[in-house]
Amino acid sequence: MCGIVGYIGHKPALPILIEGLKKLEYRGYDSAGVAVIQSGTARVEKSQGRLANLEGKVNGDFSDGVIGIGHTRWATHGRPSDTNSHPHSDCTGKFVVIHNGIIENYVQLKEVLQQHGHVFKSQTDTEVIPHLVESYYKGDLVDAVRHVAKMLRGAYALAVMCQDEPDKIVAVKEASPLVIGLGEGENFLASDIPAILKHTRRVIALEEGQMAVLTRDSVTLTTVDGEPLTPKIIDVNWDPGQAERGGYAHFMLKEIHEQPQAIRDTLIGRISDDNTQVILPEMGLPAEKARTLRKLAIVACGTASHAGFVGRYLIEKLAGIPVEWDIASEYRYRDPMVDSDTLFVAISQSGETADTLAAMREAKRKGAKVLAITNVVGSSIAREADWVLYTWAGPEIAVASTKAYTTQLITVTLLALWLGQQNGRLAATDAKEIITSLRDLYTQAAYVLEHMEEPIKEVAAQIARKEDVFFIGRNLDYAVALEGQLKLKEISYIHAEAYAAGELKHGTLALITRGVPVIALNTQPELAEKTISNIQEVRARDAYVIGIAVEGDDHTKHHCDEVFYLPRCHKLLAPVLAVLPLQMLAYYAATARGADVDKPRNLAKSVTVE
Ligand code: AGP
Fold first, then answer.
1. Ligand 1 pocket: which of 491, 607, 609 to mutate (most atoms <8 Å of CB)?
2. Is any atom of ligand 1 closer than 6 Å to the C-beta of 349?
3. What is the pLDDT at residue 2?
4. pLDDT tens, position by position, 310-340
5. In the Cβ-directed half-sphere of 424, how many Cα atoms lie within 13 Å?
6. Residue 236 and residue 184: Cα distance in Å, rounded?
């Protein structure tokens, strides 16, 4: 997830771009860059690291240009570096492009461009775009961009300038956010509203497949095919604080609602169009290694460890490989049995968690190869691993992890499918069924968030008055219960525990008395009846039971005080949807208790000490 901004008008563009990028740094801060057209030349300056580095590099060469674009990067393809920073240019330097998203077919496009003599400077997917525009430019930038946009697959919010046409910026939107701001004698574009709110409250939110041509006096909206469109202009009434959080009260709520996009982004380019194959070329793990693997060790902390817990079930089921699972801070003190046939999987949103890093180093010392699953390109864990699979959730600001967790679930699912396909233990029919369901998850997640938020808020108001809450489930539902209890307690400070539903009767049932809330997850068909009998155990002690079930389940509701139904998906993917109501429950219970949701007491976003 990156941030893009653009300006065309009568004022110097540079300060407007820099100020807009400051508002967008939460979307990515690996590097930043600007391009301004001044005296007929497209001047580009970019720098690895925070925006301040860029500010120190731009000079008087940029002071007069009244048209420009800017970018702040969250690396997905190509490590953070000056060269990989945006804007990117073509061979002539005439065309400059900034991009937020992922170009799924960039490898093929790059090969053809190189065969035609184009010289690339970066390792990014984005750089194919200016070279394509250069190839198809015949004196009309809008036509060239229109042609190129139809060649791209994936997610993109683009802004393109040409130094020979300094009176326009061409923008295109497909699966990545892009808004246009309307001014007097000036117009703006940005990844989202905060970047331009200081200059205008009149905004157009581009929709899929739309193109906008910005001049200082006009914005022309069409489809990528050139069909004219009537813009829907929104008057935005946010205050600055709300603007920084995209209109949400907290970053956590914003990130909860970013999950459909994050899920979609994390899948882009990794499943075949016909839903038969998982494709993980960027991971680099040799297929031969996958075929000879005798054991995996999944090691992580906190929420990442809960995603790993789901991964253990999935990998054993889909790939038939034994998986050990450990909390990172415990792992190296049990003298783990590790050898060269062990694949150590380190999961970490930040890629900097000291416990996970230490466990990983111990496994490497014992001869294991390491696969990192992380959200931060170039992080310590990514750098020290042998192979990396990135989640593409974009920066996660709130201490309580949400979109990182669901994209970690997506990634461990992709890994399990890929391993099963490499070692032949996953039947093609099963693979296709699961991959087809994977593809629908982001729309189903959006549905859950849209339809459950209000009823969950009401239940949360009751939970907020409690001091002890229990989460129960079996198998994958137990794995999600672990994440639900952590979310609730770390931001609302309510004591919460997760229990394997079948384990309650071995002690914890003693704590279940009248009115104690029990969140019962029941999404796994083959275990439904057993879970219902565990629900009956707590109901018999007058617990207040909230059920999480799947549409079509007509039994669970008879044993619960409240029940929330998830859309039908493949049962192995249910954790991705089941966690959503639990995240919202935690959020609204915490806000009802007046807790500091984004910065809970005693906690840090990345725990870099052991
Ligand atoms: C989760 O909400 C917490 N913030 C915490 O448990 C976190 O998941 C844990 O510290 C691991 O962080 P990492 O994913 O960056 O390694």
1. 607
2. yes
3. 86
4. 999 999 999 999 999 999 999 999 999 998 8
5. 3
6. 16
Q: Tell me if residue 91 is catalytic.
A: no
Largest CA distance in the chain: 80
pLDDT score of 151 more than 80: yes
DSSP summary character for residue 559 = G
7 phi and psi, to 5 degrees? Answer: -145, 140
Residues with Cβ within 8 Å of 2's Cβ and at least 6 positions away in sequence, in order, are 27, 28, 71, 72, 73, 74, 86, 99, 100, 101, 191
Q: Peptide bond preceding 336: is omega within 30 degrees of 0, i.e. cis?
A: no
Contact 106, 122 (CB under 8 A): no
Cα distance between residue 472 and residue 531, in whole Å: 9
Residue 402 CA, closest ligand 1 atom number? 2
The structure tokens 């807790």 sit at 595
Residue of the nearest CA to atom 3 in ligand 1?
Answer: 400
Return d(Cα 58, Cα 47) in angstroms, integer: 10
Give the atom of ligand 1 at the shortest distance from the alpha carbon of 301: 11
Residue with tokens 């901004």: 5
Cα of 193 to ligand 1 centre, how many Å?
A: 29
If we measure between CA atoms, which residue out of 588, 591, 572 comes closest to residue 311? 572
Dist CA 54 CA 38 (whole Å): 18
Sheet holding 41-48, edge to edge: 41-48, 31-38, 67-73, 3-8, 187-190, 179-182, 202-205, 233-235
204 beta partners: 180, 233
pLDDT per residue as tens digits for the range 557-577: 999 999 999 999 999 999 999
Mutate to test the pocket of ligand 1, among 350, 375, 384, 582 (most ligand atoms within 8 A of CB): 350
Nearest CA to ligand 1 atom 6: 302
Confidence class of residue 23 from pLDDT cuts 50, 70 and 90?
confident
Q: Counting atoms of ligand 1 from 1, which one is nearest the CA of 304? A: 14
Helices 574-592 & 403-422, crossing angle to 10 degrees? 170
Return the ∠ at Cα 44 (arms to 39 and 50), rounded to 5°: 140
Reduced 3-state DSSP string for 395-426:
CCCCCCCCHHHHHHHHHHHHHHHHHHHHCCCC
Pairing mode, strands 154-162 and 95-103: antiparallel
CA dihedral sign of residues 26, 27, 29, 35: negative
User: Which of 298, 299, 301 should be mutated for ligand 1, with most atoms under 8 A from CB?
Assistant: 301
pLDDT at 378 over 80: no
In the chain, what are the domains?
Answer: 3-244 (3.60.20.10), 248-426 (3.40.50.10490), 443-595 (3.40.50.10490)
